[in-house]
Amino acid sequence: MSNFDRKSKCWHGLQQPPILNPAASIGQVIVNLLERTPDKVVEICADSEEVFTCRQLRLRMIRAALNLTQRYGISKGDVVCMAVENSPRVTASLLGCFLVGAPAHALHAHFEESDLTHLMSITKPKLVFCNGHNYTRVEKSLASIGLDAQIVVLDSAEAEQIVFSPVASEEKYQPPYLGDSDKTVAAIVCSSGTTNLPKAVCVSHAQLIAPYVRVNGIGVETFLCFSSLYWGSAFQMLMLALFNGGTRITTAKTFSPGFAGDLIAKYQVTTIFTPPPMLADLVEHWEANRLRFPSLRIVGTGGCALPDALRKRADALLRPEGRVFLGYSMSEFGGIIALDMEPRVNSVGTLATNVTARIVAEDGTVLGANEEGEIQASYPHRFIGYYGNEQETAHFFTPDGFIKTGDIGRFDDDGFLYITDRKKSMIRYQNFQIAPAQLEAVIVELTGVKQAVVVGQPDPKISSNDLATALVVVSKGHSVSEEEIVAHVDASVPDYKRLRGGVFIVESLPRTGNDKIDRRQATKLARGLSQLC
Hints:
CATH superfamily of the domain at 21-214: ANL, N-terminal domain
CATH topology of the domain at 21-214: Rossmann fold
Protein name: Putative acyl-coa synthetase
Oligomer: single chain
Shape: globular
CATH class of the domain at 21-214: Alpha Beta
Subcellular location: Peroxisome
Domain AMP-dependent synthetase/ligase: 35-387
Number of helices: 15
CATH architecture of the domain at 21-214: 3-Layer(aba) Sandwich
Low-confidence stretches: none
GO cellular component, one term: peroxisome
Pfam family, one: AMP-binding_C
């Protein structure tokens, strides 16, 4: 339960110190944890059925660290991009970066060249790990921004021979001291901001260590997560497995309900993470085929709204031992803000350990229970900032150090948090984030298009999805059809960015008092036009 301080009007989660030292580096912590249970299986690649013990993973992460330094000249502060799918080499490579103090910038392996170019122009990596299928896109992106970064195809035989080759000093290796863990970047993940373009979120070593205030029995848990490192859930599941002495099942194959069920049954998975759209697919498949998985106790979900009806259906299939856990988190926070340890309809739960939060009105007034405003949160191990973007970093904090989540919500009298609206204009589809500005830029490429605004509207089939919808103003004397705009966008963007909500030609776009486009009113207009069709 969250506790309310009537004087400050702040809500507080349970106050409890972490069991691991957040002043250490994450690499130092992991290399020592792996040494304690050398023969325990820590990772299984479901695709190749390769099995790695703690001893093997520890040696491979040390070799990766030494080879990164000696062969590639990587040192503390040098960014290493990881545009890779899950594979047996990804975990050890990431952990090697942690040991060196080289921030690992996680990118989606299927990003288009434009996305790669934008993000790598921010972090300017010295080395890029990629797969064979995206090598050309990575190479072209680096060339377009004039970066002479080294590229390693991590799923090649050569990578195994070079990145993980034996090094003479490996047996005596000791992790170096990297400095203040609250100010040292461990990983860089993607997020969105007020500009609607992806930004590089710096996650500190301390942020990765501090959330863990307890561990389960060694060897008890088996974790499954389809996410690649691009998703924050992949980092969280990796840390959970390593800190709890569990076994992590990895795969690069595309998620499907049947395949997920096969893996759960084969490896007796106890914990999975799946966003609500995938959970809906799982529940439908399990119900249709009368499937049960007795080993499964924890189904973690988050990233978008979880319909209460879906939760009830899932819980019915998981009883008596298991249930769904909904978390509310954000990349900048470095972990979970709230978790529904005690489910309550439409709530994301109570505040996580050591988290403080408040509800703030638009005029800056701090509100009490059952009053709606922006959710602002703080944590002892503060967000470092956006890589190379001091202006956005400053905008993200309040003067007294709280993070502006950009979400609208309220606390009830018992300290349960409810998210009622999204202040941000980002669009979510199948758990991908779509920046409206990117689609708007594509639309205005068309001759005759004067202005465009893209907003999201609810998917009637899957409530956690947003459908990208365009409102377009055509210049006088020109003729542009909705069909032409849809076709142009379809040919220019990946599938998940398509205008599934449609295109509407309008005479003008709604604006605020200072002549900026009013996205909230634009969203209402788009929904109204959709209902007329």
